[in-house]
Amino acid sequence: MANNEESLCEAARKGDIGKLQSLIDSGADVTYFDKEGLTPLMHAAKHGHAEVVKALLDASAPWNALSPSNLSAGDFAMENGHQAAFDILLNMGIQAELILGTIARKENAKGNSNRDYLEDRVNFSEDKVMDTESKAIMMAWEKPLMEAHAKAICSQGGHILNIGFGMGLVDTAIQQYGPTSHTIIEAHPEVYDRMLQSGWGEKENVKIIFGRWQDVLSQLESYDGIFFDTYGEYYEDMREFHQHLPQLVKPGGIYSFFNGLCGGNPFFHVVYCQLVSLELENLGYSTQLIPLPVKDCLGEEIWEGVRHKYWQLDTYYLPVCQSIDDSE
């Protein structure tokens, strides 16, 4: 005879809310994984039973649990086109991350953030920059994305700021637009030395500032376009940077960032895209997410020798943020 948890999965699959609720009330484990590796919440999302999804979430079913194929309940709702179930899960994810973000901010205040990376050696090759653990810092496949970012932040002309040089892909693209001034912040000593060797310090309109952005804020002015792409930092660091945007971006200026947030899971990526848009809106910025297909430039051979595939999705959503008062 099936146990309570198997019955819970069955009720979730069928959308039997009455049976499900009585099983929850009798203490059935909403975190249970069945023999397929799926939770009751995943079954409900897969079949589009929005009411059941809500009941399971109310009973503390984990919204971010993953199946053996690395899919969450939100991914199952997305894949099967169940909008109502998807919306409930998306709102749950955003609310949970807003709360957890507060906790992460407190934890991060005690940590070193990107200090370890800055003391690490980096290895340069033709198509990538890697750290000593074979994790990619930046790769050549990002070139079309960086060109699109440069086009967005240079659309007003004027004074441009880029935080994080990496392979110089975005800065090379920015130069093509002939900005009045082009400021680059780079914190890694080896990347900085390589910039100087490559002649970046001799370009007329380029100003290089060596250091962590947190330590050089007093040297910055206000800019018509800003791009943010640092390695070895957390979402919390970008969130901290966003607090300075009102002072750093001129009215009507454009801000963009490398949108690698949760780049290994489609649903978590959507959650974080929405989360960052919401937080920027609270700071007075509207965010457009422009879809760019990247599947064709990401064959398996790209990742040879790379320990962590930091991007596994078919579409990249390029953020273009502008102060709300001036985007009308």
UniProtKB/TrEMBL annotation:
Which first-to-last residue range defines the signal peptide?
Answer: none
Q: Which UniProt keywords apply?
A: ANK repeat, Cytoplasm, Methyltransferase, Nucleus, S-adenosyl-L-methionine, Transferase
Role played: S-adenosyl-L-methionine-dependent protein-arginine N-methyltransferase that methylates the delta-nitrogen atom of arginine residues to form N5-methylarginine (type IV) in target proteins. Monomethylates ribosomal protein L12.
Q: Which GO terms describe its biological process?
A: methylation
The family database entries (SMART domains) matched by this protein are listed as:
ANK (SM00248)
Q: What is this protein called?
A: Protein arginine N-methyltransferase 2
Q: Please tell me whether the keyword Methyltransferase is annotated for this protein.
A: yes
> GO MF annotations for this entry?
methyltransferase activity
One GO term of the cellular component aspect? Answer: cytoplasm
Give the source species: Abeliophyllum distichum
Residues spanning the membrane: none
| PANTHER family hit by this protein | GUANIDINOACETATE N-METHYLTRANSFERASE
Keyword Transferase carried by entry: yes
Output the CDD domains linked to this UniProt entry. AdoMet_MTases
Q: Cite the Pfam families for this sequence.
A: Ank_2
